[in-house]
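Protein modeling request. Please complete all fields; requests missing the sequence field cannot be processed.
Requester role: graduate student
Desired output: 3D structure, token encoding
Chains: 1
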Amino acid sequence: MYFLTLAATLWLLLFPLLRNARPVDELTSRFRWVSDILRVIQGFLPSHLRFWFDGYSREPGLFLVSALLVAGLLLLGGRIAATTNGKMSAIWRKLPGAPQGLPNNLLYRLRSSPAYETTLVTLKSRIAPAVFAIFFVYIGLAVASHLLFNIQDVWGATCKETPQASLVALKPGVKVELPNAFHTKELCHATGVMLTARERYVIEMAPTAWDDGGIPVEPGDSPWEAANWMQKLLFIAAVPLRRELFQDWFEVVVRYGRTGGEEAFYIYDPTASKIEFPMRPTRDGELFVFVNDAVIGLPLLYDRLYRNNHGSAKIFVTLKKKD
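Delivered output (323 residues):
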């Protein structure tokens, strides 16, 4: 019972990281009332919990089932513990009606059988410790890699600026097609467009045939739905290595300037016919583009897990006229 409750609780805490729900899912759900309650609660809590509330609100039905499962297991576990304590107390105090002798039901016979006891000892003393040791070593290395990459990324080691002579000039109100297409295998695509803080821009992308290691990807969307069960397990295992930990796989990211890590994210809209979103940079600097994939925090291996990505996109940028 303890392990079931622990597993259900971990699932409730982690499923926003493992799923790829979209904002539109919250608007079309039959459990929208659950989302509304969550949004009210969110208003009274710190803003850094927003990621989890977004994940829960976009899949309110799954959240409701998961929360009820955890609550039910906790209640059942409490009742079993109370019943056991009552019976043990009655036996110890030799009260009338206290259980006499050993049980003779199927559960007791199963748990006292040599095969069960041997299996339980093997799991507890050998298999479980080995599995947990491997798990914690992997998590430790993955978190260290993620932090190491973030430090170098913010420093400016992962994006290379365009030479001054090759920069693209923008005129207000004119859509400009950038000379170099963006490829999803690029760790950080330099557009050659210098942005000015607080100016308004619109970026558009005309993509062709994106895939993540052979998994077809709707541009701007996540490969999760098209992945088979083995590929989904790999995605789950790679979450600690995800470049933008709290954003979906293959989400389009735009970055303002080589250093500092100031970024904005394109939220996939299945009703949109193309990738198009407005930007208002918070700082001056060149515009960079990449998709959110797993990274390794060593200079020669930064893009090792990007190399199996395929697909490209033409990029168009418009500097909006001032009001």
